[in-house]
Amino acid sequence: EQIEDFTRPERKRITYALLTPDMIVDTVEVDEKLLRSTYESRQAEFNKPERRLVERLIYADEGRAAEAKAALDAGSSTFDDLVEARGLSLDDIDMGDVTRNDLDEAGDAVFAAQSGEVVGPLPTALGPAFFRVNGILAAETTSFEEALPDLREELASDRARRQVTNDAEPAEDMLASGATLEELAADTDLQLGTIDWAPGQGEGIAAYAGFDGAAAALSADDYPEIKYLDDGGIYAMRLDEVIPAEPLPFESVRDRVRGIWE
Question: How many CA atoms does the CB half-sphere of 47 hold within 13 Å?
Fold first, then answer.
């Protein structure tokens, strides 16, 4: 009586040949010299100097800065009061995390301060300024040996993507010359697979963005051609047959039927 609830939708039986970077990344060799040169070229990433989280409030001249300093020392104004009096917000004066060199002449004084401390006025290219230190970030040093696993994985993945891209043109030439997907898989790194596809399936090759649209548009008249996946992979596919909608065998849905009945 409710057979529509237990009916498998129409599906397309699709044969495909697929090659993704992940499928070959373990076979890609990365030269030690390249690993070391990449590490050296990214010293700023792997070896970060000591930094400070800083807010900077700049004044136009020494006189106004001296008045602000007197108010701070007397306790009649806080740093936040000075910011508000200038018509600014804390976002306006936030410098984020900075190194000693980022602060030029003010660097030594700011880096000598404790977290939460306000120092100044100090000279800057824009005028005398007060600095509030909101956090102290220690230097971070990552040795070559520590960075090696991530570097190797990154470079291998990049090389695998390039290899897949390079394989796309000869694969396309084979298909244009009349090769079948089976022959393509036999002569290249592409691997053969099949899927009984229906919209929204979301498993295997159907999990890739764009595959649903390509599968929905696929017809028996289409000859296989190379298409690209969002991870740098390539594939080609062929429609083998359209499987009509059909009721699922009762035994396979017995528990669901019982649950609905109960």
Answer: 7
DSSP 43-104: HHHHEEPPEEEEEEEE-SSHHHHHHHHHHHHHTS--HHHHHHHTT--HHHHEEEEEETGGGG
The per-residue b/e assignment along 65-100, b for 16 or more CB within 10 angstroms, e otherwise, is beebbeebeeeebebeebbeeeeeeeeebebeebee
140, two tokens: 């971070």
Q: CA distances (Å), 140 to each of 99, 104, 136, 137, in order?
A: 12, 21, 12, 9
**φ, ψ at 235 (rounded to 5°):** -155, 160
| Structure confidence by residue, pLDDT tens digits, 65-112 | 999 999 988 888 899 999 998 888 999 999 988 988 888 889 889 999
**What are 163-184's pLDDT values in tens digits?**
999 999 999 999 999 999 999 9
